[in-house]
């Protein structure tokens, strides 16, 4: 079995973290880079990732996260926040980034730009927020895989009051909306969940080849 598959078998949704163990700065940078390199529709990356370290802030978030201790006990809390105001300005910024990164004149990218703007501007507000939120899950998947490679534990979490998170973290003023969170750190020796066998569908059940 490959190292990747071994590491994916090793990981699990950690229930109890060792609050005394912290992720090194080097490993944190690797996790951030893995998220940055994530795929997204058109490459737009319509989200921000907020890393919460402040203990007082995390206590507030735990209170609106149904008291889940992972929020406060993990080394870091990653909050994936969708861009609630995605529009033509975001597309223009992306086009500028492409132009500068690849040395391509912006005029040569006009067709691509117009196509993206047409898609974005024709989405309803709800559809736009849903689409942006979906992109965060791709980035979340990269975080989980990268963490497993580093033998760092991670717990993806949807059980939280998004509106309260937005208020506590000031997302409303930033045009962001919390979509999904992930606690990242190191499992506690007392977490019995680490000893459970991984339960997944078999390949025969999961895949259909046509």
From TrEMBL:
InterPro entries, A to Z: NfsB-like, Nitroreductase, Nitroreductase-like
Residue stretches making up the Nitroreductase domain: 9-186
CDD domains: NfsB-like (cd02149)
Gene3D superfamilies (alphabetical): NADH Oxidase
Keyword terms, alphabetized: NADP, Oxidoreductase
Superkingdom in the source lineage: Bacteria
KW Coiled coil (keyword) present: no
Gene Ontology MF annotations: oxidoreductase activity
Record-stated family: Belongs to the nitroreductase family.
Alphabetical list of PANTHER family matching this protein: NAD(P)H NITROREDUCTASE YDGI-RELATED, NADH DEHYDROGENASE_NAD(P)H NITROREDUCTASE XCC3605-RELATED
Protein name in the entry: NAD(P)H-dependent oxidoreductase
């Amino acid at each position: 079995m490959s190292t990747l598959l071994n590491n994916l078998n090793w990981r699990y949704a950690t229930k109890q973290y060792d609050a005394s163990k912290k992720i090194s700065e080097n490993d944190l940078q690797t996790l951030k880079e893995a998220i940055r390199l994530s795929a997204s529709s058109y490459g737009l990356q319509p989200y921000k990732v907020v890393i919460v370290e402040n203990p007082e802030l995390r206590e507030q978030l735990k209170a609106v996260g149904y008291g889940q201790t992972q929020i406060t006990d993990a080394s870091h809390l990653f909050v994936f926040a969708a861009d609630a105001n995605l529009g033509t300005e975001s597309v223009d910024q992306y086009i500028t980034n492409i132009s500068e990164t690849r040395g391509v004149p912006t005029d040569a990218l006009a067709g691509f730009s117009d196509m993206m703007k047409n898609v974005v501007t024709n989405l309803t507000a709800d559809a736009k927020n849903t689409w942006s939120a979906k992109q965060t899950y791709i980035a979340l998947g990269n975080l989980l895989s990268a963490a497993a490679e580093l033998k760092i534990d991670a717990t993806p979490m949807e059980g939280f009051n998004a509106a309260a998170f937005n208020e506590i973290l000031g997302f409303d003023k930033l045009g962001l909306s919390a979509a999904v969170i992930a606690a990242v750190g190191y499992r506690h020796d007392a977490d019995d969940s680490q000893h459970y066998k991984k339960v997944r569908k078999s390949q025969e059940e999961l895949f259909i080849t046509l």
